[in-house]
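Reopening closed ticket. The problem is back. First fold of the pair:
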Amino acid sequence: MQEFKDQVAVITGGASGIGLAIAKRLLAAGARVAMIDINPPVVQSAAKSVGENAFAFACDVTNEDQVKEVIGRIAEQFGRIDVLVNSAGVTGKTNIKSHEVELSDFRFVFEVNVVGSFLTARAVLPHMLNRNYGRILHIASISGKEGNAGMLAYSASKAAVIGMAKVQGKEYAESGITVNALAPAVIRTAMVEALPEEQVKYMTDKIPMKRCGTLEEIANLAAFIVSPGASFTTGFTFDMTGGRATY
Protein backbone atom coordinates (compact mmCIF):
# COMPACT_ATOMS: atom_id res chain seq x y z
CA MET A 1 0.00 0.00 0.00
CA GLN A 2 1.44 3.32 -1.09
CA GLU A 3 -1.64 5.53 -0.78
CA PHE A 4 0.45 8.23 0.91
CA LYS A 5 3.34 8.12 -1.57
CA ASP A 6 5.12 11.50 -1.79
CA GLN A 7 2.93 12.92 1.00
CA VAL A 8 4.26 14.59 4.15
CA ALA A 9 2.47 13.92 7.42
CA VAL A 10 3.04 15.96 10.58
CA ILE A 11 2.21 14.11 13.80
CA THR A 12 2.25 15.78 17.21
CA GLY A 13 2.82 13.60 20.24
CA GLY A 14 4.65 11.40 17.77
CA ALA A 15 7.20 9.95 20.16
CA SER A 16 4.85 7.55 21.92
CA GLY A 17 1.42 5.97 22.16
CA ILE A 18 -1.17 6.82 19.53
CA GLY A 19 1.05 9.33 17.74
CA LEU A 20 3.88 6.84 17.33
CA ALA A 21 1.49 4.12 16.12
CA ILE A 22 0.01 6.47 13.49
CA ALA A 23 3.49 7.55 12.39
CA LYS A 24 4.44 3.91 11.77
CA ARG A 25 1.20 3.24 9.89
CA LEU A 26 1.51 6.25 7.59
CA LEU A 27 5.18 5.60 6.87
CA ALA A 28 4.34 2.01 5.93
CA ALA A 29 1.82 3.45 3.44
CA GLY A 30 4.45 5.64 1.76
CA ALA A 31 4.40 8.92 3.70
CA ARG A 32 7.33 10.86 5.02
CA VAL A 33 6.49 11.60 8.64
CA ALA A 34 7.55 14.62 10.67
CA MET A 35 7.23 13.54 14.30
CA ILE A 36 6.81 16.38 16.81
CA ASP A 37 7.27 15.94 20.54
CA ILE A 38 8.52 18.05 23.43
CA ASN A 39 11.53 15.94 24.46
CA PRO A 40 14.35 16.04 21.86
CA PRO A 41 16.16 12.77 22.74
CA VAL A 42 12.89 10.86 23.06
CA VAL A 43 11.47 11.99 19.73
CA GLN A 44 14.80 11.43 18.00
CA SER A 45 14.91 7.87 19.29
CA ALA A 46 11.29 7.30 18.27
CA ALA A 47 11.93 8.56 14.73
CA LYS A 48 14.88 6.18 14.36
CA SER A 49 12.65 3.31 15.44
CA VAL A 50 10.03 4.18 12.80
CA GLY A 51 12.34 4.25 9.78
CA GLU A 52 14.47 6.32 7.46
CA ASN A 53 11.52 8.40 6.25
CA ALA A 54 10.67 9.52 9.79
CA PHE A 55 12.09 12.80 11.00
CA ALA A 56 12.22 14.18 14.54
CA PHE A 57 11.27 17.73 15.49
CA ALA A 58 11.30 18.94 19.10
CA CYS A 59 8.60 21.45 19.92
CA ASP A 60 6.31 22.54 22.76
CA VAL A 61 2.94 22.65 21.00
CA THR A 62 1.64 25.18 23.53
CA ASN A 63 4.31 27.70 22.50
CA GLU A 64 3.10 29.85 19.60
CA ASP A 65 6.57 30.84 18.42
CA GLN A 66 7.94 27.31 18.56
CA VAL A 67 4.97 25.93 16.61
CA LYS A 68 5.27 28.59 13.92
CA GLU A 69 9.01 27.95 13.61
CA VAL A 70 8.84 24.16 13.46
CA ILE A 71 5.96 24.03 10.95
CA GLY A 72 7.83 26.53 8.77
CA ARG A 73 10.95 24.39 8.97
CA ILE A 74 9.03 21.24 8.03
CA ALA A 75 7.36 22.96 5.06
CA GLU A 76 10.72 24.30 3.87
CA GLN A 77 12.48 20.96 4.27
CA PHE A 78 9.86 18.88 2.46
CA GLY A 79 8.17 21.46 0.24
CA ARG A 80 4.67 20.46 1.32
CA ILE A 81 2.45 19.40 4.23
CA ASP A 82 -0.40 17.07 3.34
CA VAL A 83 -1.50 15.67 6.69
CA LEU A 84 -1.61 16.89 10.28
CA VAL A 85 -2.51 14.51 13.11
CA ASN A 86 -2.82 16.20 16.50
CA SER A 87 -2.08 13.45 18.97
CA ALA A 88 -0.24 15.39 21.68
CA GLY A 89 -2.33 15.24 24.82
CA VAL A 90 -2.39 14.97 28.60
CA THR A 91 -5.03 13.78 31.06
CA GLY A 92 -4.07 15.96 34.00
CA LYS A 93 -5.08 14.89 37.49
CA THR A 94 -7.93 12.36 37.48
CA ASN A 95 -10.23 10.43 39.81
CA ILE A 96 -11.19 13.70 41.51
CA LYS A 97 -14.45 15.64 41.59
CA SER A 98 -14.89 19.07 40.09
CA HIS A 99 -14.60 20.98 43.38
CA GLU A 100 -11.17 19.37 43.89
CA VAL A 101 -9.78 20.38 40.50
CA GLU A 102 -6.91 22.88 40.64
CA LEU A 103 -7.06 25.80 38.23
CA SER A 104 -3.40 25.33 37.29
CA ASP A 105 -4.03 21.73 36.26
CA PHE A 106 -7.22 22.66 34.37
CA ARG A 107 -5.31 25.33 32.44
CA PHE A 108 -2.39 22.99 31.69
CA VAL A 109 -4.69 20.33 30.20
CA PHE A 110 -6.42 22.92 28.02
CA GLU A 111 -3.09 24.38 26.91
CA VAL A 112 -1.83 21.04 25.61
CA ASN A 113 -5.04 19.49 24.32
CA VAL A 114 -6.85 22.52 22.91
CA VAL A 115 -4.35 25.34 22.40
CA GLY A 116 -1.76 22.91 21.02
CA SER A 117 -4.20 21.56 18.45
CA PHE A 118 -5.32 25.08 17.53
CA LEU A 119 -1.77 26.38 17.05
CA THR A 120 -0.58 23.50 14.89
CA ALA A 121 -3.71 23.51 12.74
CA ARG A 122 -3.47 27.26 12.28
CA ALA A 123 0.16 26.91 11.24
CA VAL A 124 -0.34 24.16 8.64
CA LEU A 125 -3.55 25.47 7.06
CA PRO A 126 -1.88 28.15 4.88
CA HIS A 127 0.42 25.48 3.41
CA MET A 128 -2.57 23.26 2.64
CA LEU A 129 -4.57 26.14 1.19
CA ASN A 130 -1.73 26.92 -1.21
CA ARG A 131 -2.14 23.44 -2.70
CA ASN A 132 -5.93 23.08 -2.29
CA TYR A 133 -5.40 19.84 -0.41
CA GLY A 134 -5.00 18.69 3.17
CA ARG A 135 -6.13 16.33 5.90
CA ILE A 136 -6.27 17.36 9.55
CA LEU A 137 -7.18 14.91 12.29
CA HIS A 138 -7.61 15.96 15.91
CA ILE A 139 -7.42 13.07 18.37
CA ALA A 140 -10.31 13.67 20.79
CA SER A 141 -11.93 11.18 23.20
CA ILE A 142 -15.23 9.56 24.04
CA SER A 143 -15.02 11.60 27.23
CA GLY A 144 -15.41 14.68 25.07
CA LYS A 145 -18.79 13.35 23.94
CA GLU A 146 -20.11 11.85 27.16
CA GLY A 147 -17.95 13.18 29.98
CA ASN A 148 -16.02 10.87 32.29
CA ALA A 149 -16.64 11.48 35.99
CA GLY A 150 -13.37 12.29 37.71
CA MET A 151 -11.86 13.75 34.54
CA LEU A 152 -13.28 17.26 34.29
CA ALA A 153 -10.33 18.99 32.65
CA TYR A 154 -9.68 16.18 30.18
CA SER A 155 -13.33 15.66 29.22
CA ALA A 156 -13.97 19.39 28.78
CA SER A 157 -10.81 19.85 26.74
CA LYS A 158 -11.67 16.99 24.40
CA ALA A 159 -15.19 18.41 23.96
CA ALA A 160 -13.47 21.61 22.85
CA VAL A 161 -11.34 19.65 20.38
CA ILE A 162 -14.49 18.12 18.88
CA GLY A 163 -16.02 21.57 18.59
CA MET A 164 -12.89 22.84 16.85
CA ALA A 165 -13.03 20.03 14.30
CA LYS A 166 -16.68 20.85 13.53
CA VAL A 167 -15.90 24.52 12.94
CA GLN A 168 -12.75 23.95 10.89
CA GLY A 169 -14.44 21.25 8.83
CA LYS A 170 -17.10 23.74 7.77
CA GLU A 171 -14.68 26.61 7.21
CA TYR A 172 -12.48 24.71 4.75
CA ALA A 173 -15.07 22.41 3.20
CA GLU A 174 -14.64 23.92 -0.27
CA SER A 175 -10.87 24.04 -0.23
CA GLY A 176 -9.92 20.37 -0.66
CA ILE A 177 -9.05 20.23 3.05
CA THR A 178 -10.90 17.96 5.47
CA VAL A 179 -10.80 18.39 9.23
CA ASN A 180 -12.12 15.61 11.44
CA ALA A 181 -11.80 14.27 14.96
CA LEU A 182 -11.36 10.74 16.28
CA ALA A 183 -12.87 9.85 19.64
CA PRO A 184 -11.37 6.71 21.18
CA ALA A 185 -12.44 5.02 24.36
CA VAL A 186 -9.64 3.46 26.41
CA ILE A 187 -6.55 2.65 24.36
CA ARG A 188 -3.76 0.93 26.27
CA THR A 189 -1.05 3.59 26.10
CA ALA A 190 1.50 4.86 28.61
CA MET A 191 -0.88 7.74 29.40
CA VAL A 192 -3.66 5.28 30.30
CA GLU A 193 -1.27 3.06 32.24
CA ALA A 194 -0.48 6.09 34.42
CA LEU A 195 -4.12 6.55 35.42
CA PRO A 196 -5.45 5.10 38.69
CA GLU A 197 -6.69 1.56 38.08
CA GLU A 198 -10.17 2.46 39.34
CA GLN A 199 -10.36 5.21 36.70
CA VAL A 200 -9.41 2.76 33.94
CA LYS A 201 -11.93 0.22 35.23
CA TYR A 202 -14.66 2.89 35.29
CA MET A 203 -13.97 3.66 31.63
CA THR A 204 -13.49 0.08 30.43
CA ASP A 205 -16.68 -1.15 32.13
CA LYS A 206 -18.66 1.17 29.85
CA ILE A 207 -17.34 -0.51 26.67
CA PRO A 208 -19.68 -3.21 25.28
CA MET A 209 -16.69 -5.14 23.91
CA LYS A 210 -15.29 -5.19 27.49
CA ARG A 211 -11.75 -4.49 26.38
CA CYS A 212 -9.41 -1.65 25.54
CA GLY A 213 -8.73 -0.68 21.97
CA THR A 214 -5.31 -1.39 20.50
CA LEU A 215 -2.81 1.01 18.98
CA GLU A 216 -2.98 -0.90 15.70
CA GLU A 217 -6.75 -0.45 15.55
CA ILE A 218 -6.61 3.30 16.10
CA ALA A 219 -3.74 3.72 13.64
CA ASN A 220 -5.70 1.91 10.94
CA LEU A 221 -8.76 4.13 11.39
CA ALA A 222 -6.65 7.28 11.55
CA ALA A 223 -4.90 6.32 8.32
CA PHE A 224 -8.25 5.98 6.56
CA ILE A 225 -9.50 9.36 7.85
CA VAL A 226 -6.42 11.21 6.54
CA SER A 227 -6.20 9.26 3.29
CA PRO A 228 -6.82 10.82 -0.14
CA GLY A 229 -9.87 8.57 -0.54
CA ALA A 230 -11.64 10.00 2.51
CA SER A 231 -12.62 13.13 0.62
CA PHE A 232 -16.33 13.63 1.39
CA THR A 233 -16.29 13.56 5.19
CA THR A 234 -15.34 16.65 7.18
CA GLY A 235 -16.25 18.19 10.50
CA PHE A 236 -17.08 14.70 11.76
CA THR A 237 -16.08 12.81 14.90
CA PHE A 238 -15.27 9.16 14.22
CA ASP A 239 -16.06 6.48 16.79
CA MET A 240 -13.37 4.22 18.25
CA THR A 241 -15.10 2.92 21.34
CA GLY A 242 -15.94 -0.77 21.08
CA GLY A 243 -19.64 0.06 20.87
CA ARG A 244 -19.82 2.63 23.67
CA ALA A 245 -20.69 5.57 21.39
CA THR A 246 -23.71 5.15 19.15
CA TYR A 247 -23.81 8.70 17.80
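Second fold of the pair, where the issue appears:
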Amino acid sequence: MIGFETHDHSHCIATGVAAADARCREAGLRLTETRRRVLEILLERHRAMGAYEVLEVLGKGAKPPTAYRALDFLVKNGFAHRIERLNAFIACAHPGEDHAPAFLICRGCDAVAEAPSEATKGRLGEAARKVGFRIERAVVEAVGLCPKCQDAA
Protein backbone atom coordinates (compact mmCIF):
# COMPACT_ATOMS: atom_id res chain seq x y z
CA MET A 1 0.00 0.00 0.00
CA ILE A 2 1.23 3.50 -0.79
CA GLY A 3 -0.04 6.70 0.72
CA PHE A 4 0.13 7.19 4.48
CA GLU A 5 3.73 6.29 5.33
CA THR A 6 6.75 8.58 5.14
CA HIS A 7 9.13 7.74 2.31
CA ASP A 8 11.56 9.15 -0.27
CA HIS A 9 9.50 11.29 -2.70
CA SER A 10 12.42 11.76 -5.10
CA HIS A 11 12.56 7.98 -5.58
CA CYS A 12 8.80 7.91 -6.33
CA ILE A 13 9.13 10.72 -8.86
CA ALA A 14 12.08 9.12 -10.66
CA THR A 15 10.47 5.66 -10.67
CA GLY A 16 7.06 6.95 -11.78
CA VAL A 17 8.41 9.06 -14.62
CA ALA A 18 10.75 6.27 -15.77
CA ALA A 19 7.85 3.79 -15.81
CA ALA A 20 5.72 6.23 -17.83
CA ASP A 21 8.59 6.84 -20.27
CA ALA A 22 9.13 3.12 -20.79
CA ARG A 23 5.42 2.34 -21.18
CA CYS A 24 4.97 5.19 -23.67
CA ARG A 25 7.93 4.00 -25.76
CA GLU A 26 6.56 0.43 -25.78
CA ALA A 27 3.04 1.52 -26.72
CA GLY A 28 4.05 4.21 -29.20
CA LEU A 29 2.55 6.96 -27.03
CA ARG A 30 3.90 10.49 -26.60
CA LEU A 31 4.76 11.59 -23.10
CA THR A 32 4.87 15.27 -23.96
CA GLU A 33 6.61 17.79 -21.73
CA THR A 34 3.26 18.93 -20.31
CA ARG A 35 2.08 15.37 -19.62
CA ARG A 36 5.43 14.60 -17.97
CA ARG A 37 5.23 17.75 -15.85
CA VAL A 38 1.66 16.98 -14.72
CA LEU A 39 2.78 13.47 -13.73
CA GLU A 40 5.73 14.96 -11.84
CA ILE A 41 3.37 17.34 -10.00
CA LEU A 42 1.13 14.47 -8.92
CA LEU A 43 4.16 12.44 -7.83
CA GLU A 44 5.74 15.39 -5.98
CA ARG A 45 2.60 16.17 -4.00
CA HIS A 46 1.72 12.54 -3.20
CA ARG A 47 -1.93 13.43 -2.69
CA ALA A 48 -5.06 13.83 -4.74
CA MET A 49 -5.19 17.12 -6.63
CA GLY A 50 -7.95 18.81 -8.58
CA ALA A 51 -7.31 19.88 -12.16
CA TYR A 52 -7.27 23.57 -11.21
CA GLU A 53 -4.77 22.88 -8.45
CA VAL A 54 -2.51 21.17 -11.01
CA LEU A 55 -3.07 24.13 -13.32
CA GLU A 56 -1.85 26.55 -10.63
CA VAL A 57 1.38 24.61 -10.26
CA LEU A 58 1.85 24.49 -14.05
CA GLY A 59 1.97 28.28 -14.07
CA LYS A 60 0.38 31.34 -15.61
CA GLY A 61 0.79 30.30 -19.24
CA ALA A 62 -1.19 27.08 -18.83
CA LYS A 63 -4.90 26.98 -19.67
CA PRO A 64 -7.54 24.59 -18.22
CA PRO A 65 -7.72 22.39 -21.34
CA THR A 66 -3.97 21.80 -21.04
CA ALA A 67 -4.31 20.34 -17.54
CA TYR A 68 -7.44 18.34 -18.40
CA ARG A 69 -5.91 16.82 -21.54
CA ALA A 70 -2.75 15.83 -19.69
CA LEU A 71 -4.73 14.33 -16.80
CA ASP A 72 -6.98 12.42 -19.23
CA PHE A 73 -3.91 10.99 -20.96
CA LEU A 74 -2.35 9.94 -17.64
CA VAL A 75 -5.56 8.27 -16.41
CA LYS A 76 -6.31 6.57 -19.73
CA ASN A 77 -2.82 5.07 -19.84
CA GLY A 78 -2.63 3.98 -16.19
CA PHE A 79 -0.19 6.59 -14.88
CA ALA A 80 -2.78 8.29 -12.66
CA HIS A 81 -6.21 7.60 -11.17
CA ARG A 82 -9.28 9.75 -10.76
CA ILE A 83 -10.63 9.83 -7.22
CA GLU A 84 -14.37 10.20 -7.74
CA ARG A 85 -15.23 11.33 -4.20
CA LEU A 86 -12.74 14.19 -4.29
CA ASN A 87 -13.07 15.01 -8.01
CA ALA A 88 -9.30 14.84 -8.04
CA PHE A 89 -6.38 12.90 -9.47
CA ILE A 90 -3.51 10.97 -7.92
CA ALA A 91 -0.41 9.39 -9.45
CA CYS A 92 -0.65 5.62 -9.77
CA ALA A 93 1.42 3.74 -7.20
CA HIS A 94 1.90 0.84 -9.65
CA PRO A 95 2.27 2.36 -13.12
CA GLY A 96 2.35 -0.10 -15.98
CA GLU A 97 0.73 -2.88 -13.94
CA ASP A 98 -2.73 -4.14 -14.77
CA HIS A 99 -4.59 -3.62 -11.50
CA ALA A 100 -7.82 -2.40 -9.95
CA PRO A 101 -6.88 -0.48 -6.82
CA ALA A 102 -9.02 0.49 -3.88
CA PHE A 103 -8.56 4.01 -2.56
CA LEU A 104 -8.48 4.70 1.17
CA ILE A 105 -9.45 8.35 1.62
CA CYS A 106 -8.91 10.19 4.90
CA ARG A 107 -11.91 12.35 5.75
CA GLY A 108 -9.71 14.46 8.01
CA CYS A 109 -6.90 15.53 5.66
CA ASP A 110 -8.00 14.11 2.25
CA ALA A 111 -4.84 11.97 2.04
CA VAL A 112 -5.31 9.00 -0.28
CA ALA A 113 -3.63 5.60 -0.16
CA GLU A 114 -3.78 3.14 -3.04
CA ALA A 115 -4.31 -0.45 -1.93
CA PRO A 116 -4.48 -3.60 -4.05
CA SER A 117 -7.99 -4.85 -4.77
CA GLU A 118 -9.76 -7.23 -7.11
CA ALA A 119 -13.38 -6.46 -7.86
CA THR A 120 -14.00 -9.98 -9.14
CA LYS A 121 -13.11 -11.48 -5.76
CA GLY A 122 -14.61 -11.06 -2.32
CA ARG A 123 -18.24 -10.21 -1.66
CA LEU A 124 -18.68 -8.00 -4.71
CA GLY A 125 -17.34 -10.68 -7.03
CA GLU A 126 -19.45 -13.32 -5.33
CA ALA A 127 -22.62 -11.21 -5.66
CA ALA A 128 -21.89 -10.58 -9.33
CA ARG A 129 -21.31 -14.28 -10.03
CA LYS A 130 -24.60 -15.23 -8.33
CA VAL A 131 -26.59 -13.12 -10.76
CA GLY A 132 -24.44 -13.89 -13.81
CA PHE A 133 -22.89 -10.43 -13.96
CA ARG A 134 -19.35 -9.92 -15.26
CA ILE A 135 -17.55 -6.98 -13.64
CA GLU A 136 -15.46 -5.01 -16.10
CA ARG A 137 -14.59 -2.02 -13.94
CA ALA A 138 -15.20 -1.10 -10.32
CA VAL A 139 -14.12 1.96 -8.38
CA VAL A 140 -13.59 1.22 -4.70
CA GLU A 141 -13.23 4.24 -2.43
CA ALA A 142 -13.29 3.80 1.33
CA VAL A 143 -13.54 6.83 3.63
CA GLY A 144 -12.08 6.88 7.14
CA LEU A 145 -9.18 8.34 9.12
CA CYS A 146 -5.49 7.96 8.31
CA PRO A 147 -3.05 7.12 11.13
CA LYS A 148 -2.02 10.78 11.53
CA CYS A 149 -5.61 12.00 11.86
CA GLN A 150 -6.46 9.15 14.24
CA ASP A 151 -3.54 10.23 16.46
CA ALA A 152 -4.73 13.86 16.34
CA ALA A 153 -8.25 12.85 17.36
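Update: turned out to be a display glitch only; the data is intact. The two ends are 23 Å apart (CA to CA). The chain has a mean pLDDT of 88. Please close again.
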